[in-house]
Amino acid sequence: MNDLRVNNISRSFGGLQALQGVSFDVASGNVHGLIGPNGAGKTTLINILSGVLAPTSGEVFYRDQALHRVPAHRVAAMGVARTFQNIRLFPTMTCLENVQAGHHLTAPRPLLPRLLRLPSAGREDRELAAKSRGILARVGLDAKDSHLAKNLSYGERRRLEIARALSFRPRLLLLDEPVAGMRRAEAAEVANLVRSLAGEGMTILLIEHNMSFVMNLCSRITVLNFGRVITTGSPEEVRGHREVIEAYLGSGGHDA
Ligand SMILES: Nc1ncnc2c1ncn2[C@@H]1O[C@H](COP(=O)(O)OP(=O)(O)O)[C@@H](O)[C@H]1O
Ligand SMILES: [Mg+2]
After folding, report:
1. Where is 46: in which H helix or E strand?
2. Does 167 fall in a domain?
3. Nearest CA residue ID for atom 27, ligand 1
4. From the centroid of its chain, how far is CA 43?
5. Could you list the residue range(s) of the whole structural domain that residue 34 is in?
6. How far is the CA of 152 from the CAs of 18, 40, 83, 147, in angstroms?
């Protein structure tokens, strides 16, 4: 079964055609890579899938529901969460609070018990904290739950971004360059996390420039260049594809 169907998506910014007739499917429980040189339109596509941008034309279906007209604040409730290429956290909040903030958005709790300070409110708070600590543990940040986000290392902030996305309890997770700037060991931990999430049935679409990361992790890869799909295939198919090789050589190799 396909979780995600991207059908003939185009998006322009003024005269610039950022995406042109992009189509591909992502199967349930798969880790699907989205690669391509800088400016290829990868982030624009994730922005469309997460409701941040509307497409100029085309459609996106998530489990047969039209996703292309759903605004960002409702996409999370449909089971779709994302991380950002440029990390977006609450810098002066703790790790735990950053994760809890996401949870509050998807599971708004009745206000009255909290206003009346009923015992159920305290219990819910403790349950939420326990759940959020569990998510922090999954990304290896449980020891830093009370640290402020701004005091984390770069790689830790990237992992906290993933934890924040997981707090929405997504079935489809969109990761925009999750290991950019990470050391090799840290990237390997993120690869293990992505594998275990997919093993639990989560569908993952990820953008990444780190080729060994993508090739080892993804079962299918879609390659974009100048807003168009060059090919979608297995890592082996993509690696040997003439236009893919040319696109990467033509762009001067990996970019930032
Ligand atoms: N909000 C925007 N306004 C104008 N141009 C944009 C905007 N977002 C992206 N673009 C342009 O669209 C193209 C694709 O950008 P992007 O999707 O960020 O590429 P990638 O993530 O593959 O590097 C680029 O030429 C970029 O400058
Ligand atoms: Mg990008």
Report:
1. helix 42-49
2. yes
3. 39
4. 10
5. 2-250
6. 34, 31, 17, 7
Tell me if 12 is assigned to some domain.
Answer: yes
Q: pTM surpassing 0.85?
A: yes
Ligand 2 geometric centre to CA of 82 (Å)? 13
The CATH number of the domain holding residue 95 is 3.40.50.300
Break the chain down into helix, strand, coil percent, rounded to 5. Answer: 40, 25, 35
What is the tens place of the pLDDT at every residue in 115-126? 666 666 678 788
In a domain, 190, yes or no: yes
Which of 11, 13, 229 has most ligand 1 atoms within 8 Å of its beta carbon, as the pocket-test mutant?
13
Bridge partners of 52, per DSSP, are none
User: Which residue CA neighbors atom 3 of ligand 1 most closely?
Assistant: 13
pLDDT digits (tens, 9 = 90+) for 213-239: 999 999 999 999 999 999 999 999 999
What letter does residue 37 receive in the DSSP assignment?
A: S
> In this structure, is residue 256 part of a structural domain?
no
Question: Considering only CA atoms, which residue is closest to atom 11 of ligand 1?
Answer: 18
Strands (E), 42-109: 57-62, 65-66, 80-82
Question: Given the DSSP bridges, would you call strands 57-62 and 2-13 parallel, antiparallel or unpaired?
Answer: antiparallel
Query: What total number of domains does the chain contain?
Result: 1
CA 82–ligand 1 middle distance (angstroms)? 17
